[in-house]
Hints:
The chain is an alpha+beta fold.
Amino acid sequence: MTQHYTEQKFESHIEGHLLNSGYHKQSPLNYDRELCLVPEEVIKFIKSTQPAEYDKYHLQYGADTDTKLCYILSQEINKRGSLIVFRKGFKDKGIRFRLAYFKPSSGMNPEHLQLYQQNRFSIVRQFKFSQKDEKSLDIGIFLNGLPIITAELKNSLTGQFVEDAKKQYRQDRDPKEPLFKFKRCFVHFAVGNEKVFMTTRLSGHKTRFLPFNLEFENPVNPNGHKTSYLWEDILQQDTLLDLINNYLHEQKITEKYFEKDKGIVEKTNEVMIFPRFHQLDAVRKVLKSVKEEGAGNNYLIQHSAGSGKSNSIAWLSHQLSSLYQKDTDTERIFDSIVVVTDRRNLDRQLQNTIKQFEQTTGVVNPIEVNSQQLKTALERERHHNNHLAEIPRNIQKHYGSTRKKVCRYY
């Protein structure tokens, strides 16, 4: 039996699980290689979630509406990247379109929840991505017609392993191809039966892959593949939308290099941060416990050196600031999040990291002078909260976003 379990059957197994969990199947022929979109899915999503905006757009472009909309969208992604477009949308002729709806932090806005449920995830197998040749990818994951994830699969039962998938990305996936350009797809997975590796930036033979495993060696799974957590958890719709909204981040990292002529020089690079499994697991477990137990408990997270402590702290801090214990609650669990460290170099690193995760200006307030600065900031925050508490009940449903804006981290 096992000798007949081919790579194609491995693909089919993953596809079947995703289709059973709400994905749509798209033909590879529907993928537009020039635009890097599935135009049909883009238009379906916008028509179903933003009919009034689409009608206004149609008045201006008529029969060319769908073609023009997809072209402008592709150009916006080229300029700003998929993450910004998903979070902020795009605008043309004075009309703004959303490309995704994220899960509301509480149940105070049922209309937004309905829009969230209309996000469309698709899987495309063996799709040809290039205008120059007929090479194809094993799997592409699309959200509302936009590519967000690629995956190359290798089946050890046929003598190929995850290292072969990494080699394929490095040697046979040109980073100059539109699909593989930095900031278009969020992550590229090299997937085997036993291990998973990921990269957020293809750079030819210099491509750096990070492990994306449950443990150093994935434990035996009595119910299937050791790597089944990838499609049973990470690729699930709610998880991916949560990652895009709360975890993915374009970050500037400054590193020191030695150059023969100049000596030690600093170079700043932009990277796309996608959480490794252990980081995601730690943050999700703390958030789950806080929602169940409420405020006032202590938690210990053990991180080894170089495992991404600063990012984990930043993700946890930002999400705690907008955490509700129940969907029906109108008050967040925490008014302020205070991050304390006993090392100055880590303090600076943490401040920079948390500040870069800020999506709303003014949310993060670094404390760089003394404890008096912290005292002043906390008192200012208390003043804001008291003011918000005085808003009448009949308009409380409108101030959720306002409360989020005045929450600060220290």
